[in-house]
Q: What sequence folds into this?
């Protein structure tokens, strides 16, 4: 019985050692990443990708990066990457066809 308790105690101590090693490695990596995000210049900051993606969209951001890397326009067919349903192709709002006139009382 004592040998089983010793083995489980050793296993737990090894697991705690591995947990501490992983925790310290993750802590150091996160610290370096946060320090880099804080200290990098605005034009070189990796965090700037988040607001840029929100403003431009992921598809356009990737196309911009491809153009910047190659220095030439990307070769894709002309037109919008957005596919509209047949009902929305007219792109008109029915309420714009009618003039609002308040009722006279």
A:
């Amino acid at each position: 019985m004592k040998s089983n308790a010793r083995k489980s105690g050793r296993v737990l101590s090894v697991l705690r050692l591995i947990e501490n090693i992983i925790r310290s490695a993750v802590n150091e990596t996160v610290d370096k990443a946060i320090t880099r995000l804080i200290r990098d210049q605005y034009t070189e900051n990796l965090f700037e990708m988040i607001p840029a993606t929100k403003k431009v969209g992921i598809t356009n951001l990737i196309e911009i990066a491809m153009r910047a890397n190659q220095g030439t326009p990307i070769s894709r067919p002309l037109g919008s990457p957005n596919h509209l349903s047949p009902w929305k192709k007219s792109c008109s709002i029915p309420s714009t066809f009618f003039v609002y006139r308040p009722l006279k009382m």
Notes: The chain has three helices and no strands. The mean pLDDT is 79.
